[in-house]
Specification:
Strand order of the largest sheet: 12-10-9-8-6-7-13
Structural class: alpha/beta
Shape: globular
Order of helices and strands: HHEHEHEHEHEHEHEHEHEHEHEEHE
Number of helices: 13
Radius of gyration: 22 Å
Strand content: 15-25%
Length: 419
């Protein structure tokens, strides 16, 4: 496992951020296992000596894992739910106490309050999914030096934005991020969204679709990387097939991470009037607007972050042709396992970008779901595996540059934000 992770870390070259999902509510708890048996004094002495030797070992019975939702809840069929289920499954299988906390509102103050609540309850590993936790990392990590914080999809730029304040110039290279948070007890990671976006765009055109749409949530880096990767993949497939003049992509941001009547109206126009066949709905709950519009005309939708086929297909059987996923589950499980093994020192203070680590699609931290992607003669599971191999070996290059629009042979129409 450690070999795989280290290979992954060496392969990652950039750090950017991602979006969470909307909602609010009260704190919840789930005690998956409570080990109430105290070790005898001899065992405690042995454990103490082992901890001192390793420097940072958490004995299994000492770990207490908490997960805090960003602005959504654990039923969002996306970032929060996937992270929650991974934490819960690992904790259950390792006899570790687990609880999740839902902030009372969508605010930095409420998220920090949930950190306070978890720390006060004795939780010493806190998992926080989404860039919205940057402020909590800046403010809270130093207050709780004995707590291990895992910031999933929190980048150096996110931390600097909250740590520096209004003087931040949005160029992380101009700043030393370590000056703005307590790196000794924090591990952060982001993902190479442009790669799974590329896979989705490439697959869609190969499957036979020619008029594509991209509906982003807000124009934060992770959403833009998904979108620009999607465009690059569609462009590459069209060139291979010699149909560049026939393929086009509509591109817009909703300006929020949830669907509403205005966004649905735009999607209605895309599907019903403009002839869009499939929309990549990228941004938490914004998929609802794409799915509602697609249902009326038999259109298709692409999910994001996790395999969203289960919830999107409730709007229409077979509506989801694939999902551009991040490997949240392996990220969480690997990190918790490493903490359990006493290897936290190898991760604390790092901000890593997770992506391709293998020619095996299911071992990567960016991928398409093999079981639910609607393969066809144009793009089969074997074709997908070949694409993964080409990206892993570097034969296919995917740009992560979001400072400018991708140059394409296909027609790309970027519209003003809906909101």
């Amino acid at each position: 496992m450690k070999r795989k992770i280290m290979a992954m870390l060496l392969a990652c070259t950039m750090v950017l951020s991602l979006t969470g999902c909307g909602g609010n509510g009260e704190s919840k708890s789930e005690n998956t296992t409570k080990n109430e048996t105290e070790a005898n004094s001899d065992s405690e002495a042995d454990t103490s000596a082992e901890n001192e030797e390793k420097g940072d070992t958490e004995a299994e019975s000492d770990m207490k894992v908490a997960m805090i939702t960003d602005s959504g809840d654990i039923t969002d069929q996306s970032f929060n739910q996937t992270t929650y289920e991974a934490c819960k499954a690992w904790s259950e299988s390792n006899s570790v106490t687990f609880e999740y906390f839902k902030p009372e509102s969508d605010s930095d103050e409420a998220r920090s309050a949930s950190v306070d609540q978890a720390a006060a309850a004795g939780y010493n590993v806190i998992v926080m999914p989404g860039y919205m936790f940057a402020k909590a990392i800046v403010d809270q990590a130093e207050l709780y030096p004995d707590v291990k914080f895992i910031g999933i999809d929190v980048s150096a730029g996110d931390i600097l934005e909250k740590g520096v304040g209004e003087d931040y110039d949005y160029n992380p290279d101009n700043w030393n991020v370590e000056e703005y948070y307590n790196k000794d007890n924090v591990y952060c990671c982001t993902y190479q969204e442009e790669i799974s976006g590329y896979m989705a765009g490439y697959a869609t055109v190969k499957m036979g679709y020619k008029h594509l749409g991209f509906l982003g949530g807000m124009a934060v880096p992770a959403v833009t990387k998904f979108g620009y990767g999607y465009v690059q993949g569609a462009d590459a497939a069209a060139k291979e097939m010699g149909i560049e003049k026939e393929v086009q992509v509509e591109f817009v941001y909703g300006g929020q991470f949830y669907g509403d009547a205005d966004i649905t109206a735009t999607m209605d126009t895309w599907y019903s009037s403009n002839g869009v066949e499939v929309v990549f709905a990228c941004g938490g709950g914004i998929y609802t607007s794409a799915a509602e519009a697609a249902k009326k005309v038999g259109g298709k939708v692409i999910g994001v972050d996790s395999d969203q086929s289960g919830i999107i297909n409730e709007y229409g059987d077979g509506m989801t042709i694939t999902s551009a996923m991040k490997g949240l589950t392996p990220t969480v499980m690997n990190l918790l396992e490493e903490i359990k093994a006493g290897n936290w020192g190898e991760y604390a203070g790092k901000i890593d970008c997770l992506g391709m680590v293998s020619e095996n699609p299911e071992e990567n931290y960016v991928q398409l779901p093999i079981d639910t992607t609607v393969w066809n003669d144009g793009f089969s599971e074997e074709d997908y595996k070949n694409l993964v191999q080409s990206i892993f070996t570097g034969e296919v290059q995917v740009s992560n540059d979001i400072s400018k629009e991708p140059e394409t042979a296909i027609k790309l129409t970027i519209s003003p934000n809906i909101k």
